[in-house]
Amino acid sequence: MTEPPAARPATIRTVAMRAGVSKSLVSLVLRGSPHVSPARRDAVQQAIDELGYRPNAIARQLTAQRTQTVGLLLNDLRNPWFVDCLEGITAVLDEHGYRCLLADARVDRRADEALLRGFLEMRVDGLLLAGSMPSTASITAAAAAVPTVVAAGRDIVLPRVDVIANDDRIGTTLAVEHLIELGHRRIAHLAGGHGAVARFRHDAYVDVMTAHGLADRITIEAGDMTEEGGYRAAVRLLGRPDRPTAVFAVNDISCIGAMSAAAELGLRVPQDVSMVGYDNTSLAQVRHLWLTSVDNANIEVGRRAARALLRRMADPTRPGDVQLLRPALQVRGSTAAP
Fold first, then answer.
1. How far is CA 236 from CA 198, 222, 271, 334, in A?
2. For a surface tag, which of 180, 181, 219, 285 has the fewest beta carbons within 10 Å of its beta carbon?
3. Average pLDDT over residues 204-217
4. Counting beta carbons within 10 angstroms of the beta carbon of residue 191, is it exposed (0 to 12), middle (13 to 18) or buried (19 or more)?
5. pLDDT of 130-167, one tens digit each?
6. Cβ(276)–Cβ(327) under 8 Å?
7. Which domains are seen in the chain, by residue range?
8. What is the DSSP letter of 9?
9. Does the predicted model carry a pTM greater than 0.85?
């Protein structure tokens, strides 16, 4: 017995015929256009359900010359600040039907060229650069080809690239003045190496100490924004005879490394040394650590960066804009009077 021929899959034409509308109106419904009456939208949806129509996403993207994807390049997925930033980014992009392609350039800084080229070959509609990363020739070229926004970074300054970040100078001022108000005078800074964010926090620390008449107490120990870097820097710092009574670290991860160093040296936090981090990550909120930290509004930075990218994709030629969100200090159990 011969089997009956398989039914042909439904197409946008058969959906339009079943609903008694034009193909262009079916396309408007599939794109979620608000310019369709409820009655016609219901008729099209009923036809789709009856026929089992499944839109061909690839064909639709080719027709619209858009892929509904955004490339997201970040500098270090190991740092939990990015999880909050990503939450804000994806929440906004999902609302507008965009998907995120994620790549981490931490392993090899030269890899950014290959990763960016991959994004361009996938024809992403926009590009998000998250965190501190150097302004390379490949980033400049990619930003010239695709609408681009920087989230939580301050190194990339290009004519048609928006920057959304927290105000590092205000955040640092809140942290250092909190320690001064507690009575600390020997306040050290675990620095973050190269990059604009680390430089802003370093310079703000120096300015606040100087403004409070503590220029002779300025102590800076070089780190690299990692837990291991914070640990090694804190071992050197806290092993001195004139060790500080308080430490302001460039970020939470390096501060957690410093807390480990303090414990190994037999120092209690905050009884023997107070510590303040930056980023207010999920780790800072772990009860065992309970770290005082600067909240740099990572989720809101992500949301605003995604909205800025949507605006830039709609108008790629407008001048670049810089938005700095005001941070806040979250006081927990890692700081106390000396």
1. 20, 10, 20, 20
2. 181
3. 98
4. buried
5. 998 888 888 999 999 999 999 999 999 999 999 999 99
6. no
7. 69-166+298-325 (3.40.50.2300), 168-297 (3.40.50.2300)
8. P
9. no
